[in-house]
Design a protein that fits this description.
The chain is of the alpha/beta class. The protein has one domain: Rossmann fold (3-Layer(aba) Sandwich), CATH 3.40.50.1360. The protein has 7 helices and 9 strands. The strands form 2 sheets. It has a 6-stranded parallel β-sheet with strand order 1-9-8-5-2-3. Strands 4-7-6 form a 3-stranded antiparallel β-sheet. Helix 1 packs across helix 2. The longest helix is centred in the N-terminal third of the chain and has 22 residues. It is globular. The protein binds 6-phosphogluconic acid (6PG). 6-phosphogluconic acid (6PG) binds next to strand 4. The site of 6-phosphogluconic acid has 16 residues, from strand 4.
């Protein structure tokens, strides 16, 4: 594999390594910047990673936290990516609430996407049509090769103009808000965390098939991209080792 892939015995080890790398990159960024920016994903795999980050003795006061995507549910809903992050990381880490920039999933998705884009513009000090450059974007990959809330066939996969958008995910009959490709591709560091046997075939396709993000959205920012590392368990890496 020409891309940077690290393969671990299990999800636990892959998640711990991803958490450690996040801390290392944040510390590095903070040496030369007044603050660092981190966008995290949801799903189930990140729980272990969040727990490790929460246990670290890290000064979070200069880190700003965002989400790669959010489901159209209130922050108290079990499907909320914010809720997962809050329970596993924000609360136990004592992460400063002023540095938490969540997507308001309880609002109409179009409204939430607009407010979220405005919030990002404000924190990054952006003007006009500029896109943010996150220091770290942590992403997962679904069994259908989706990433963020960009599912195969989604026309927004070709939107490199906007920061975030509302997206209707047919598969789950659910509105969501997601960061868009221009932002994912602009990240200084992309950390992909994927574990489990159901990720083996999509991972093979994402790494080995020709670039076609409409079909394999996880290729966004990862295909021959620099600053990209995959954190995998053996089961996910089975077809690419
Ligand atoms: C979401 C995610 C999504 C996730 C993948 C993989 O809100 O669903 O952000 O893109 O990263 O579905 O999820 P797992 O890592 O749990 O398999």
């Amino acid at each position: 594999m020409s891309v940077n892939s690290l393969i671990f015995a299990d999800a636990r080890a892959a998640s711990s390594a991803c958490a450690a790398r996040i801390l290392e990159l944040l510390a590095g960024a903070l040496e030369s910047q007044p603050f660092a920016t981190l966008a995290v994903s949801g799903g189930t795999t990140p729980a272990l990673m969040f727990a490790d980050m929460a246990k670290a003795r890290f000064d979070w006061s200069r880190v700003h936290l965002f989400w790669v995507d959010e489901r159209g549910v209130p922050p108290t809903d079990s499907q909320s990516n914010y809720k997962l992050t809050k329970e596993k990381f924000i609360d136990p880490a004592g992460f400063p609430s002023a540095n938490v920039h969540r997507v308001q999933g309880e609002l109409a998705a179009e409204t939430a996407a607009k407010l979220y884009s405005d919030e990002i513009r404000k924190v990054f000090g952006l003007t006009g049509t500029a896109l943010p450059r996150f220091d770290i974007v942590h992403r997962g990959m679904g069994p259908d090769a989706h990433t963020a809330s960009l599912f195969p066939g989604e026309p927004l996969i070709e939107d490199r103009t906007h920061i975030a958008a509302a997206v209707y995910v047919e598969k789950f009959q659910q509105w969501r808000v997601t960061l868009l490709p221009g932002v994912l591709e602009g990240a200084r560091n992309t950390l992909m965390l994927a574990a489990g046997a159901d990720k083996a075939e999509p991972l093979r396709a994402v790494l080995r098939e020709p670039y076609d993000p409409l079909r394999y959205p996880s290729q966004l920012a990862t295909y021959n991209g620099s600053g990209v590392t995959w954190f995998l368990d053996k089961a996910a890496a089975r077809l690419v080792e």
